[in-house]
């Protein structure tokens, strides 16, 4: 590397692999980054929940809704809420692990040829949060194949490869950090989709508590004003989405049946599948037959959750721009 040095060591899993000078690899990596960015993906799913009632219920009255349509709506909504929950790991659990492992990012580079080397990215990089996000998306596409099986699975593999390549070639993470992040993402996908849904609330609570504790224990985490790498800002972004999805998930099961919390996400997907004619466990039909367009849409609760999310995100903005810590 002509103008970058290793922050860690020269081991293949730790060395800086940033492309210098910038070439075609950097151009490709920056293009990938502009599309597969955790906060962008998170906001996309929030918008999906926002417009879902309009997409599915436009020009329909409560009397014209059959149970099949209701189940499709609930299936989609639960899918989006759970995906937001999994993506929260990128903002909260990943930051907690940063403060536990405290492994620096791999590259320090000089930008003006003045011999002054500055780190690429924030202070820590183990594990890679973007690789974790890519693994969550990729594993979902490979396992559930929501589009066409072969296309979904090819796309899932490509998401893995492209994002890991992007993080390494831009110098934000080492090979070891992206492999760790991707491996963690795969594990978290199966963890969050196989355990009972009530574990989601326990999971969220623990992330809120441990995030507040571990970041305060690290004396290196002191940031100035206008610092986009302020990890407290990142953590509060995660808190915002955790509160958002917790409110919606709480309302979802309050509206249908608390007993369903004992089922896993995978089991709930099967129970709400409108094309599954035989359900050996229980019938959702009796649970949702009374639901109207208004109660299904839950517009009031969505906007409460959304407003709280915005307030907490403003706190994240304050951390980043006013040097709060």
Q: Would you give an account of this structure?
A:
By secondary structure, the chain is mostly helical. It has one domain. Helix content is 65%, strand content 2%. The protein has a 3-stranded antiparallel β-sheet, with no helix packed on it. Helix 1 packs across helix 6, helix 6 packs antiparallel against helix 7 and helix 8 packs antiparallel against helix 9. The chain is globular.
Distinctive features:
325 residues; mainly alpha; 13 helices; 65% helix; PAP2/HPO; transmembrane; Phosphatidic acid phosphatase type 2/haloperoxidase domain-containing protein; membrane; PAP2/HPO_sf
Residue ranges: pLDDT <50 for 5 or more in a row?
A: none
Shape: globular
The oligomeric status of these chains comes to: single chain
The description of the largest β-sheet is: 3 strands, antiparallel
What proportion of the residues form beta strands (DSSP E)? under 5%
Category by helix and strand content? mainly alpha
Question: What is the CA–CA distance across the termini?
Answer: 35 Å
Q: What is the average per-residue confidence, as pLDDT, rounded to a whole number?
A: 87
- Fraction of helical residues: 55-70%
Order of helices and strands: EHHHHEEHHHHHHHHH
Domain count: the total is: 1
